[in-house]
Fold Membrane progestin receptor gamma-like.
Amino acid sequence: MLGMSVSTGLSGPIYYAHQVPEHFHEHYILRGYRHPKSSVTQCLLSVFDPTNETLNIWTHFLPTWYFVYVVYHLWWSIDFTNDVYSWPLLSYLLVCCAFPLASAVAHLFNVMSDCARHVCFFLDYSALSLFSFGVALIYRAYCFPSHILSNTTGCTWFKDHYVNLAAITAILCTFISCETRFMKPSAARKAIRLGAFAIPYLFDSIPIFYRILFPDVNEWSAEYLHKRQFLFALVAAFLYASHLPERLLPGIFDIIGHSHQLFHVSSILAVMDQLQAVLLDFKERRSFVEPCWQSREFSNSLGYLLNIFVINSIIIMIFTIRLLYLKHKMKCT
Ligand SMILES: [Zn+2]
């Protein structure tokens, strides 16, 4: 394959879809493909080239620095070292920095080889799964509805097991999303992958859905931002699933404006609203939520997050070994 390229950038030739292997194709994206066996230098230089991945990289690399700036800023006003109450927030802030960075790295280096492409997206998926668990930690710590915390609804079981169930959904998310990379491209694969991310997201959001449906007697300032984050998340899911606008006008949005870039932007806007909402709950609800707290110990916040990180890393290692084994087997036959 390959042959005459569309144009030449700093990283080398840029190709049409029909010139690169089929598994590198993106739906309805006709051009802007990098060489499927790019070197590290070519990948790094490609961030300045007009490829179909360039804005995928920037739309997650720049937000990483926004979240790093937020951590730096908060570090001066919150005693993260000694105030146990802040540990779930710190866990969440760490995953806020990690998931867009992992995604930017995945989009940057996924054209180094077939194997690299899979491993890059294993990392991306596991970072998203870790993020979902970070969300569960802060929702449990600061955002649970008053009715459930004060036991007036009889939901004690849900309150006590929420974080453990979120851990299971996060691990399943990593496992299922990585498994989809071994499936043939199809609508079913897309639906399973979307479902793998939707399940932890929807489960984690139950306390916030509840707060929206059954408002507290206390008026919390974060309600509006909690609602708006769902709106951005809904738009993000729609863009991911629909492949709009490139589905309507293939070839027009190859470099700027295709659905994956818009999906990145919408999901980051959702996380920015979520972060602001959580910071409001963190400050306003302390005297209310702290008496019914599970998160006092390291093992219930940062330590738990570390455990999920280790489990996700083991899952990625197993999938990578499986990938190398399959590649070796194909060479032998
Ligand atoms: Zn992406």
Q: What stands out?
A: The chain has eleven helices and three strands. Residues 34-332 form a domain with the Rhopdopsin 7-helix transmembrane proteins fold (CATH 1.20.1070). Residues 169 and 200 are 5 Å apart (CA to CA).
